[in-house]
Design a protein that fits this description.
Helix Hairpins; single chain; elongated; mainly alpha
């Protein structure tokens, strides 16, 4: 029987991988993938708590909003990365300070 703790362990593992990806990578695309892992782990928590509460679907509805926000974040993030690549010819985050000017 799969219980709430199983979902929480998977979510914690995804969150840890996402944090590790954000903090250790220098490639902007890999950082965006880490952020997506973090948001997906939050969605797993929302849906799991919604499933194990008494008929409450508010967590599932909130997870849909998080998915929509994650899609918008990915679109804006990729647009910023493309403009950075056009100017600097790299997606290395160490060179991202050149976009200030």
């Amino acid at each position: 029987m799969i219980g709430l703790s199983h979902y929480l362990v998977i979510s914690a593992a995804l969150f840890s991988l996402g944090i590790m990806g954000v903090l250790t990578r220098k490639n902007a695309v890999n950082v965006l993938m880490g952020i997506e892992l973090i948001l997906n782990s939050a969605n797993i928590n929302l849906v799991a708590f919604s499933k194990y509460s008494a008929g409450n679907i508010s967590g599932q509805i909130f997870a849909i909003f998080v998915i929509v926000i994650a899609a918008a974040e990915a679109a804006v993030g990729l647009a910023i990365i493309l403009s950075m690549y056009r100017i600097v010819k790299t997606v290395n985050l160490d060179r991202a300070d050149t976009l200030k000017g």
